[in-house]
Amino acid sequence: MALPQVAVVVGSNRRDSINRKYAQALVKLGAGKFDAKFTRIDDLPLFNQDNEGNLPAEVVRFKDEISRADGVLIVTPEHNRSMPTVLKNAIDWGARPFGKSVWPGKPGFITGTSGGAIGTALAQQHLRSVMTGLGMTLLGGEAYITNKPNLIDDQGNIGDETTQKFLQGFVDRFAGLVAKLKV
Ligand SMILES: Cc1cc2nc3c(=O)[nH]c(=O)nc-3n(C[C@H](O)[C@H](O)[C@H](O)COP(=O)(O)O)c2cc1C
Predict the structure, then answer these.
(1) Strand-strand pairing, 107-114 and 71-75
(2) For residue 116, what pLDDT is reported?
(3) Which residues contact 70 (CB under 8 A, 6 or more apart)?
(4) What is the CA radius of gyration of the chain?
(5) Does pTM surpass 0.90?
């Protein structure tokens, strides 16, 4: 049987994004449980409601990739105690026009890493509020990850064994949720 398909959305458009590396390590933890495809958001134009009736090609592609996915993994940094603009922009496009949102019923796992001690907790709280409002079915629990030097090792894996076990638990539960809700 085909593995569930997971769309990975990274809330950073920075070339050397630590959240992208972290997302890639999470995808490795999901090997054999789901197939992952990174979905671009850095090429989406700034949201403008005037264009809802005639969506730009990049937005059509983004919405199509999310629609076809069985689940969405969102890995985000924290910008000024909330989610980065580039991520909110993608979420808004995905939700519009009214009645054509790609988010309702989609299982999601939200996590992220930053250098701060609270490891994106406030960004994730805002994001949870937004995505719950949009009807996503979010994985419970809190995966706030402080970015320490060995968070990701030279092979692209989670470097620290305790953190790796902690995150494996989330990835396994997410894989289970996605498989359960797969239509
Ligand atoms: C505009 C801006 C605001 C930021 N605000 C926060 C913040 O509120 N909390 C935090 O922990 N880090 C904050 N940071 C630091 C980011 O967490 C850090 O740049 C991190 O590397 C971003 O992840 P990335 O490498 O995936 O882009 C901010 C960075 C920028 C550029």
Answers:
(1) parallel
(2) 87
(3) 4, 5, 6, 34, 107, 178, 179, 181, 182, 183
(4) 16
(5) yes
pLDDT band at 11 (very low <50, low <70, confident <90, very high): very high
DSSP letter for 104, please. Answer: T
- 10's enclosing H/E stretch is strand 5-10
Test site for ligand 1: of 114, 120, 126, most ligand atoms within 8 A of the Cβ: 114
Most ligand 1 atoms within 8 A of CB, residue of 10, 14, 75, 79 to mutate:
79
**How do beta strands 5-10 and 71-75 pair?**
parallel
Nearest to 115 by CA among 88, 160, 145: 145
Can you give the pLDDT at residue 117?
87
Nearest CA to ligand 1 atom 14: 79
Helix ranges (H only) for the chain are 18-29, 57-68, 85-95, 121-133, 161-181
- Cα(179)–Cα(71) distance, rounded to whole angstroms? 9
pLDDT, tens digit, 9 for 90 and up, residues 115-174: 988 989 999 999 999 999 999 999 999 999 999 999 999 999 999 999 999 999 999 999
Per-residue pLDDT, 1: 77
Question: Quick one: residue 120, left, alpha or beta (phi over 0 = left, psi -120 to 50 = alpha)?
Answer: left
